[in-house]
Amino acid sequence: MGGHGAWHISTHFPDKALAVVTAAGWMRKEYYGDSNVLFEHDICTSYVDAQLKAIFESSVVESYVDLLAPNLKGIPILARIGQEDRAVPPWQQRRMMRILEEGGATVVWEEIPGKEHWWWDTEKQSDGGCINDDNMRAFFAAVLHNTSLPVVDYSMSGTKSKSRKKKLKVPSSGFLDEESEFVASLPPAPHEFDLIVMNPASQGARGGLRVLQLHRPFAQGRISVKLANDTWILKTRNIRRFAFEKSAATPHRLHFFQRDVLVDGILFSASDPHESVEALVSSSQHLCSDPLSNSKWRRCREDEMLSKPAAQLFPAEKGPDTYGPARLVAESPFFFVVGGQKEECEASKGADGNCSRQPSLSHLMLSGAVYLANLHHSAADANPQILLDEQVTDSMRAGANLILFGSPKDNKVVRHYQQQGLLPVRFGPMAAAANLPEVPDGAFAIGKCIFQGPSVGVIFTFPLRKGLSVGDARAGALGLVIVGADEDGLRDVLSLGQPTIPPMVRPPYANMQPDFVVTGPELTWKGIGGVLASGYWGNSWEFLPESSYSIDPCA
User: Fold this and answer.
1) Are 239 and 214 within 8 A, CB to CB?
2) What is the mean pLDDT of the chain?
3) What's CA 404's distance to the chain center, in Å?
4) Cα distance between residue 226 and residue 194, in whole Å
5) Residue 389 pLDDT more than 60?
6) In terms of DSSP bridges, do strands 182-183 and 209-214 run parallel, antiparallel, or are they unpaired?
7) How far apart are CA 72 and CA 190, in angstroms?
8) Please, which residues bridge with residue 549 across strands?
9) How far apart are CA 34 and CA 523, in angstroms?
10) Which helix (H) or strand (E) holds 197?
11) Contact status, residue 449 vs residue 554, Cβ threshold 8 Å
12) 296 CA to centre of own chain
């Protein structure tokens, strides 16, 4: 992920980028050979509803760097590729260049004649080649010293070197801080730019703006920014909550300071001691939009929730630490917790006091945890622990994310979070409440949909703590529950975690896995076409029809 990794990190964390240098950077994994063609050749293609397909695909679009290209405006960029590259076709870089230039970015673009995916010699033997030749070194020097240096236009290979010299113009990145010390590192944000966000969990700030929530999770959010008449004008789309944030580029001040800010027509005056940007930053406050009107912005309340009757309030909100999708659980320290072992053993004890048999479902849960742990080890060199539910202490729960096997009946830890009111899936038996139906024993409900019967399974994310988690303490923030009504249902849920692109193995549930999936009896032969429901939780961990799919209405 060298070239693509440079695109990915810079588009996701533009306020941390001094410059971007990418060699043969592809835009999307789906364009990189045949490494991720789940919906192209898989038999499930003929059975997948278009809405369901969109739900699964939207869990990976945050890695589509071309969608996030506008975030790079104002950052120096050098992109190059060998004209004969057969691993990453040059059209991918050409398209990325076009998108960047259409968005106003300044790009130095090189397509080196006669070179393939990698080369050691650009013009002469051992001159640094692909990643360290004269042009690369000139670019690094220009960025570090805010100068324009001559580089060679390699596309004019038939002429002498002197006549191929051109000026490498790099946007000025220097500024004076409050101590009048020159800082030659991060470039300031331009006076007009866009911030594009697909997932607040995987993206940082741009121009001192950080998105914390979207109205529709995993749909594109945008903040368009422009300085006009000494007033910052912000226009938002699909943004529920955001914050003004200092960065390494603005350690002592923010360009929004001492200026009025207009957000979708709502004024936050620089002279207001409570509503100015300085006041918001100093008190770590966010701006929230009224769910009933996207044009209404205000300072968030301490107990901010979506507009619902008090009895319906979920005790937690999604934030960057918990926004999902399922793969976010394993991006911090985590361990597995398996339930059902002791209870089923007690039920099957023989006259000698020992378990007379190994209960099949509980054994499969334990085997499933071992299987997933081995996949994590082979894909990410991780060594997660596997514990029984009776071994887990309060301090262990607080210090790590959790992948839990079993329903509240089977797993004491799952039962603990159900009693805390933190499970967005309702397990029976449970009485009707707040316009939600009664859930019978052996069933579970998502929204108003009840699922039960043989070969049914569910996997879903949930918060491990109450409140809004917006910091960087992701360990102990997010959990994943895996439940099967029987062995077949559990096997089907486990199958969703299988690697999809060997030998480039991804960790379990890292590829096209949204916040929740309900599997049905037909999943074995229809693949994803046998999914009964899937989607993304709302900001209050509620079932959100516009961000979900179900074979029956669940709202």
Assistant:
1) yes
2) 83
3) 21
4) 9
5) yes
6) unpaired
7) 10
8) 534
9) 24
10) strand 192-197
11) yes
12) 27
- Nearest CA among 106, 54, 205, 41 for reference residue 535: 54
Give the angle subtended at the CA of 192 by the CAs of 190 and 198, to the nearest 5°: 95
- Measure the CA–CA gap between 149 and 164, rounded to whole angstroms: 13
Contacts of 63 (CB under 8 A, 6+ apart): 8, 28, 29
- Tokens at residue 109, please? 């673009």
Span 336-359, pLDDT tens digits: 999 976 655 555 555 555 554 445
CB 202 within 8 A of CB 237: no
Average pLDDT over residues 194-205: 94
What is residue 170's predicted lDDT score, i.e. its pLDDT? Answer: 54
Q: If DSSP codes are grouped into helix, strand and coil, which group holds residue 91?
A: helix
The token pair at 474 is 């992701």
For tokens 């980028």, name the residue.
17
pLDDT in tens, 500-522: 655 566 788 887 899 999 999 99
Contact 332, 322 (CB under 8 A): no
Asked whether the beta carbons of 26 and 64 are under 8 A apart, the reply is no
Residue pair 117/85 in contact by the 8 Å Cβ criterion: yes
CA distance 529 to 525: 9
Tokens of 45: 């293609």
Whether residue 465 is predicted with pLDDT greater than 50 in this model: the reply is yes
Q: Which of 495, 485, 487, 427 is nearest to 456 (CA)?
A: 485
More confident residue, 245 or 312: 245
3-class state of residue 433 by DSSP: strand
SS3 507: coil
Neighbours of 42 (CB within 10 A): 15
Looking at residue 391, its amino acid is Q
